Amino acid sequence: MILCRTTVLISCLVLGVCGCETKSADTKTSAPASATNVNLAANSQPAPSPASGPGFVDACALIDRADIASVQGAPVQSTVPSSQTSGALAISQCYYTVTSADGSKNLSVHLEVIQADPKNGNPKAVKDYWEKSFGEKAEGGDDEEKESGKPLPVPGIGEEAFWTGNSKAGAVYALKKDKMVRISLGGPDDVKTKIEKSKKLIASVLKRIS
Asked: Model confidence over 50-67: pLDDT tens digits?
């Protein structure tokens, strides 16, 4: 009798252990599946890459290094191309790394060439963006307005051009047909100086884009 009870008890213990091991094994095999899904989601996020394909240009080929060195007073150390889409717009970019001779000032130049993304199907995307951003033209041009961040008309380049921002963080936008060019300069210059420097560089860009 005792032997039978012992046998039954041992059988129950074995079944219990096997059941736990099976459950544990199921839990272990499901974990990698979740991890894989997370990795796939992370990898699906777009990352900046050199310009390629319809709607993009090689922005780093649009300004000569010598022209940037002449404007900023120091040579270009490197260029970093990238491209991305934003809504109906395709944006080609180039970051020209420039530092002063003593290494104390960041004089880098950031160029963007913006045009309609052909995959989006809206050829008027740039004009629409331009009208939304600069449709109400700013007037005047004294120092207070230049530092206020209000769009300031910049004559002499493209079909139309504006400065936005201030001396610490500002840029010139110029429109040519179905393309828009944006350029910003690093350095301690005031707004007036940065506008004049930007005009020189944008003039070079506009000659090279169709």
From this structure: 545 667 899 999 999 999
Element (H, E) at 197: helix 191-208
Q: How far is CA 99 from CA 74, 102, 129, in A?
A: 7, 8, 33
| Strands (DSSP E) found in 35-142 | 76-86, 89-98, 109-116
Contact 76, 110 (CB under 8 A): no
Rounded CA-CA distance 126/179 in Å is: 6
Give the pair of three-digit tokens for residue 44: 């699906």
Cα-based torsion angle of the residue sequence 69, 198, 189, 142 in order, rounded to the nearest 10 degrees = 160
| pTM: predicted TM-score of the whole model, two decimal places | 0.71
pLDDT of residue 55: 72
- Torsion angle, alpha carbons of 10, 16, 19, 25, to 10: -100
